Amino acid sequence: QVQLVESGGGLVQPGGSLRLSCAASVSVSNFNTMGWYRQAPGKERELVASMTRGGTTVYADSVKGRFTISRNNIKKTVYLQMNSLKPEDTAVYYCNGSPYYWGQGTQVTVSS
Question: Could you report the per-residue pLDDT of 61-78, keeping only the tens digit for each?
């Protein structure tokens, strides 16, 4: 059974950094695309960043230059490095292994 488990969320001040991790029960190379999504209260879930098996990355305009997606195939883990965090980045962040597999989410709160 495929499982994705996120970790690394928390409370951080504006301008701070967090690194989210998504540990998979299978090789991350099994998925065509691994991605990070987020959902803020009252809003729809949106794509934050994704990486294809071949290494092509896509970022939401709102996070370009601040967030970086990466992976470690040996550790079966995908990361989201988040720098220069803003209050509007506050959301539950979900890991996705295309197309059907989702983690349980990790809360990120950016507040002073």
Answer: 999 999 999 999 899 999
